[in-house]
Design brief:
Elements lengths: L1 H7 L3 H9 L6 H24 L7 E5 L2 E5 L4 H25 L15
Antiparallel strand pairs: 1-2
Helix pairs in contact: 2-3, 3-4
């Protein structure tokens, strides 16, 4: 039962991919969606730092030593990532709006010949 609960928890990026992905997406749109998902996941990590949910970005155990990497400007980074995410989402929607559509549902431009 615990395994099912763990797999049901999706990251912000996974949720974004699920919501935005379409079967007829071009490669460039799929790439933008993946990049937006990575930005969303990074932003979630920064927000966890800002909210105090975690104290360090990453913790490495190197034998008896533990190295912690802290980011002092997490709030600024989270804002910058939100701006980047907005630009990516706008570009995804722009490319989809610019995509030619055929009223017959045929995407092959040579089909009418």
């Amino acid at each position: 039962m615990a395994k099912r609960a763990a797999t049901a928890e999706k990251t912000a990026g996974q949720t974004l991919i699920d919501e935005l992905s379409r079967e007829d997406d071009t490669f460039s749109v799929r790439l933008l969606i993946e990049q937006a998902a990575q930005v969303a996941d990074m932003r979630a990590k920064y927000l966890a730092l800002v909210n105090g949910d975690v104290a360090e970005w990453v913790k490495l155990s190197l034998g008896p030593q533990v190295v912690e990497v802290k980011i002092d400007s997490a709030a600024r980074e989270a804002r910058m990532l939100m701006t980047e995410l907005r630009h990516l989402l706008a570009e995804i929607h722009k490319q989809r709006a610019d995509k030619p559509t055929d009223p017959d549902g045929n995407l092959d431009p040579l089909a009418s010949f």
